[in-house]
Amino acid sequence: MFSLFQVMISCATANTAGTYSLKYVGGSLPLSRHKKLKALVVEDSVVLMQGKRILTVPAASITEISQGGDERSKTSGRYVALEWEGKREWEGKRPDGVSASKTEVVFKAGRGECGRFLTDLKRLTGKPVIDTNRQPAAVRY
């Protein structure tokens, strides 16, 4: 008998364009910062897995993809930021009855891994990748 987790992973890997090892740097996800995670880019979503935690981001909800890092460094990883709209299934409703709608996250990836991950995200969403080294990024507090 298969668990729901095994079925989900089997389905995800069957349609996977790519599996990526990333590090969660920060953002509004209920994940451990500076810890590794797996990202699966599947047919219509991005699945993020860290430990027992599994979060799914529908491709249609992704509103922005950006990347940046120190271009002079050959060994340093690159940063990938994602922003998406939609209900945060892990939060439910806030005490004021409103559910949060915008999620922003930053991942760190190795140089080769970063390029492949960005290519898959661009293909999946149809959104351009903003290079923050060439275009100023707005920082929201």
Topology:
Elements: H1 4-14, E1 18-27, E2 35-41, E3 45-50, E4 53-58, E5 62-68, E6 78-85, E7 102-109, H2 111-125, E8 129-131
Short description:
The protein is an alpha+beta fold and 141 residues long. The chain has helices at residues 4-14, 111-125; strands at 18-27, 35-41, 45-50, 53-58, 62-68, 78-85, 102-109, 129-131.
Mean pLDDT value: 78
CATH homolog superfamily: Pleckstrin-homology domain (PH domain)/Phosphotyrosine-binding domain (PTB)
The span between the termini is: 47 Å
Question: What does the largest sheet look like?
Answer: 8 strands, mixed
Number of helices: 2
CATH class category label: Mainly Beta
**Poorly predicted tracts of residues:** 1-16
- How many discrete structural domains? 1
Question: What does this protein look like?
Answer:
The protein is an alpha+beta fold. The chain has a single domain, classed as Roll (PH-domain like), CATH 2.30.29.30. The chain has helices at 4-14, 111-125, and strands spanning 18-27, 35-41, 45-50, 53-58, 62-68, 78-85, 102-109, 129-131. Strands 4-3-2-1-7-6-5-8 form an eight-stranded mixed beta sheet. The N and C termini lie far apart (47 Å). 20% of the residues are buried. Residues 1-16 have low confidence and may be disordered.
Which features does this protein show?
disordered N terminus; PH-domain like; globular
